[in-house]
Fold this sequence. Notes:
The chain is an alpha+beta fold and 439 residues long. The protein has eleven helices and 18 strands.
Amino acid sequence: MADRYTSDLAAALAPDVLERFQRYVRLDTQSSRERERSPSSPGQLELARLLCAELLELGLADAQVDENGYVMATLPASASVADGDSDSGPAFGLMAHLDTTPDVSGRGVEPIVHPGYDGGVIELPKQGTRLDPAAMPELRAKVGHDIVTASGDTLLGADDKAGMAEIMAAVGYLASHPEAPRPTIRIAFTPDEEIGLGASLFDLDRFGCAFAYTLDGSELGELQDETFSALEVLITLRGVDVHPGQATGKMVSALRLAARLVDRLPSDRLTPDTSSDMEGYIHPYELNATADQAQIRLILRDFDDALLNQHLALLRQAAEEVVASDARAALDFQVHRQYSNMRRYLDAVPEVMEAAEEAIRAEGIEPLRIPIRGGTDGSLLSEMGLPTANLFTGGHEYHSVREWSSVQDMAAAAAVLVRLAEVWARRDPGAVKPLAGRS
Length: 439
């Protein structure tokens, strides 16, 4: 493998990270938006049981999978940090999610390692999929790295199996190095994050931490305490369907109403492809339509709640105006609040971000403080009272068949977790007060 590691520690962790990552991505854990139980898909439970077995093998004797598919385990504090009983003392959490997006197949993933990337186009064997550095500036920066991809007809699963491989490698290292200082660390792997339900059944009391970190970011050095606030909207348009040969003056096509509604939305702004940085958007992502009935699913995002409400008002007005064009048409407009910007909760506990910055710098990396144009389990967990910052994993082009990851950057993420344990061994996680009762 290439030698472009951030430290000797990262180089030592790399083989374990890669082996675990390749094993995990081969399991299909694609979640389903039509969730009838937790987890929403059987592959997530299969992966949860595998992780639990591996945690037990590493010596985390309390590792369990609960009835909803959540994995939890404890890595006890090192003897140099523990006060008397090595199983006691304040803890911080490390978390990743089991599922992959419902939008792209995760079945039959075959990871391919491209050693010593030469800076050119990476041609994948299926569907003509190409990773072109001209369109991927992050890839241009990884010359000399070992790049992992899938075959071109599935996603890779770095979101978030890179995160869980990094956590597992770091836990394995710490468990086999009792001399490395660390406080008690709680581990959790959650189902159904990609459908916004990863925190919905999470047992905060059982987890027993005042704060945590998700491994669900991307570029080397990312450290995030801010996400979109998010709404999901389901619009149902009802028309009047009759035989097209007898439709004159009678038919009201719900499909055409839906097309008119989508066309009314801004196309030069407020879309994912025209927005960046702190700009929000209205994104219709699914349409099921006949002349009789049409359903449009949309997500609305913004970092500012007031602006998010403006986007919602714009959408509602457009829908009402389209339906008002014919008295026989009907509209159902359902709004589901998904999560809030987690910044307001993490601002209350600055120590969480300070410690992460210290750990990243200890690995020789400059922290990248950038907001997440998306959400993580930390969004809801922070609101529930568990302030949860987000760290990088080294994965890129998430939710697509072009997804890829750098072995060197994944190893760096695992090394940062070992550094983070050292930082909190000095800082004492018990000094961070729980957010329960604070908002």
